[in-house]
Amino acid sequence: MTARATSRLVLLTALALLLLLAPEAVLIVFAGILLAVFLRSGGHWIGKRLSLSDGAGVGLFLLCILIGFVAFGIAIAPAIGEQVDELGRRLPEAFRKFREEVGESYWGAQMLHRLSPEQLASSGGGAAAMTAVSSTFGALGNVVVILFIGLYGALDPAVYRRGVIRLLAPPLRAQADQALREAGGALGNWLSAQLISMSVVGVLTALALWFAGVPLAFALGLLAGLLAFIPNIGPVLALLPALLLALPDGTDTLLVVLAIYLGVQALESYLVTPIIQQEKVALPPALVIAVQLLFGALFGLLGLALATPITAAAMTLLEHSYLRHYLERDERPA
Asked: pTM value?
């Protein structure tokens, strides 16, 4: 076996073992890489316009983020915080009323019984859902690890990229370096497009709900914007709390809320996203949904949240290292 084949086999075997033995750790590291790409992209953008180094740009970008959080906390957070607290208090009561109404029918009672926590736990369905969020360090420890990986990766990504490249045979290193750079670019493009979509969804949802007189409009808009990070499935998850809160107010309010969410989602899907993705990465929707379902079943909530950026990076690496430099090269005439 050649050095090229051996190095590829060793690298793929190590990755497969990590995914098998410690999938939570792999996902947390990837989340840190995604944060590093975000910070590096913002720092590069600032540094290019102010004639600064990328490292100085990252520091200035972090300062801007900190100032933005402080300004948000002073100006807006108190009002939204009250709505978020009220949302947390009202959702359990709304869900209880929903269970009571649905449980009046035979089929509804059977469905609620099958979806009860006791049934999910006994069938093993709860184990997969908790895997990705119950690591050794806990949720807070995971956040700290992600922050440190993102910060160190943003300040000096070259040293980590060189470390990965050195695991490959010398003839493959230039190709691997280009593939990693392209994958990082794909992640940056996807992330910038997704942040724009999240902002549009959150603002439009909050304004439409507020204009329609729906209570807790800004808390629901914030939730819709955050969950828009998960394409396809996120909007459905954001709709459920709004429908639960609108249910006691009658059919008219329920239809208004449903129309608002469907309208915002249609606007985002057919106008905002196509415009953004003209110069950004575009992923096949069916492939994204399939990967989301797979990662959600295998790795839980964190896998579901990271399924789309993982797909974007994997497609870029596959295109560069396998399709372009292996299959298509073999099809060229000698």
From this structure: 0.75
